[in-house]
Every structure is written in structure tokens, then in C-alpha cells.
């Protein structure tokens, strides 16, 4: 079978249809006993200007609670999946994920410091915890990059080792901060499991610009990621500067990861599962994988979040749901990748 190297319109259309169906299902069905027919009537009324079957309070549940949460899930899923695809392309490793260079450790440390040391702050346009997580994720990746440069370059092996060192150090700082105030353990642990239960329009506007910017940059760099798979020497012979490409791609992917972490906490496996599903279903070229990971990641997390909030009477942490899906898939990738992990 011929390798697919170009994004086909029918592939994009199929992905968008699945995303639309998942978003609509998440809006129609929920813990509130509104009835999907009445919710559908409310949506139709908003589109056509007709009479809604819902009361004002019930309509607010749809437009002020469900819709922003669904949109945040889509943005976070798109950000993590596209970043995961980018990291796999840069490092030429199918097990690379968006947290590889210390984004998770940096975000976790910064969020913990806010929970432990920051006083209760009211009146902020954006809460201090998401701001700290965003800055911490970028700082973790930045430290890894600087450490890699100081150690002798921007090669993938050097960056990986730098990421391991930075993540270990930041995790140690986080653990020390937690031990200074053990009362904060539950709040920090809940945040680290990931979730969208407090998502609103504020979180949508926080994540949207960074996710959109990073998505555009990664899609524009997708062809260069295909060139990097040939190796640095071959890429340089074709006029591509591998170090510069890695810097741009990792910066964009880290920006998307930071935006996702800021509004959702740490949600694992999305950046591994979705790119591999796209690779299996749509093609192995990054000109296909990156844009379809944006769509597929949004769909995956919308569905996962819907399961998290409806599967049990009490809401499950979203990170637990993605782990149930991702851990077996991770093992499958590990088994089928055998000698291709280096």
C-alpha cells in the first residue's frame, strides 16, 4: 500500500464530523436531567430564534457550564496531541510526549508553590494557579533547552538528558514545598490528576490564542518534520537547518502544552495515543499526522471528559480516564516499536 504523504480532504472531513458529533453528544447528554430532546430544542431555538423548551436556569447550564467545558476539552486535547506529534517528530521516538522536556515538572512545581505559599487572591482576572502553571511549564522546557545548549548542543540525546535532569530537580523542589505544608497535598494531588470541572469561558479565552498559534506553526513545520526523519546530515543537504527547526517546533509545542496544563492540570497519554492512532489510520507523514492530531486530540478529550463526568455518580478525574485508555496503548506501542525507540 502506498504511503500517504498529503492530507486528503476526505480525511479532514471525516475527522471534523467525528469532532462535531462528539461535541454535540457532550452538549446533549450530562448529569443534569434536562433530556437530550429539550437540549436539542434549545440549540435549535438559539440558531433559528425560536422558543426554547428550557428555563433560563436550564439554558445557563448548557451555555455557561457544558459548552465552555466542552470547548476547553477540545482545546486541551488538540494542544496535547499536536505537541505530542511534534515531539515524536523532533526526537524520532514514538514514545515521546509533550511533557518530555520538563513541562509537567515545571507546571507541577509552580502550581504547588502557589497552593502552598500564595495567600487567597480575589479579584484577579485570571487565577494565580493557571498563570503559575503556564509559566512553570515554559520555564521547565526553557531550562532543559539551556542546559542542553550548555552541555554541547541541541541534539536530541542531549536535550533528552537535560529534560530528565530538569524534571528530577523541579520534582524535588515540588516535593519539598509539599512537605512544608502537608495540608496542601490533597489540592495539589487533585490538580495533578487533571480535570475540567471548573472550566468556564475564562479558561476558553486563556487557552485559545496559544493553542491556535501553536497549531498554525506546527502545521506549517510538518513538512520539515518529515525531512528531519531522514537524519540531520540528509536534512542539512536538502537545505534544512535541523537545530533551528527543532527550536521553532519545540517552542510551539511547549507553548501549546503550557496552555493546556494551565487550564486542565496534568493529563497524560493524549500526546502518545492520538498521534499513533492518526499514524495507523491516516498515514505516516507529519503533513498528515500534525493537523489530524489537532482534530483527533480534540475529539479524544471531549469523549474522555464526557466519560469522566457521566460514568459514575461522582465525577472521575480526567487524567484517570485517559490513563485507563493510554496505559494499555502505551504498552502496545512499546511492544510493536521494538528496535525503533532510539
Automatic annotation (TrEMBL):
Its main location: membrane. The chain crosses the membrane at residues 65-87, 99-118, 124-147, 159-177, 204-225, 245-278, 284-304, 316-334. GO terms for cellular component: plasma membrane. Keywords: Cell membrane, Membrane, Transmembrane, Transmembrane helix, Transport. Coiled coil: none annotated. The keyword Membrane applies. One of its GO terms (molecular function) is transmembrane transporter activity. InterPro entries: ABC_BtuC-like (IPR037294), ABC_transptr_permease_BtuC (IPR000522). It is a multi-pass membrane protein. GO terms for biological process: siderophore-iron import into cell. The keyword DNA damage does not apply. Pfam families: FecCD. It is found in: Cell membrane. Belongs to the binding-protein-dependent transport system permease family. FecCD subfamily. This is Iron ABC transporter permease. It comes from Amycolatopsis suaedae.
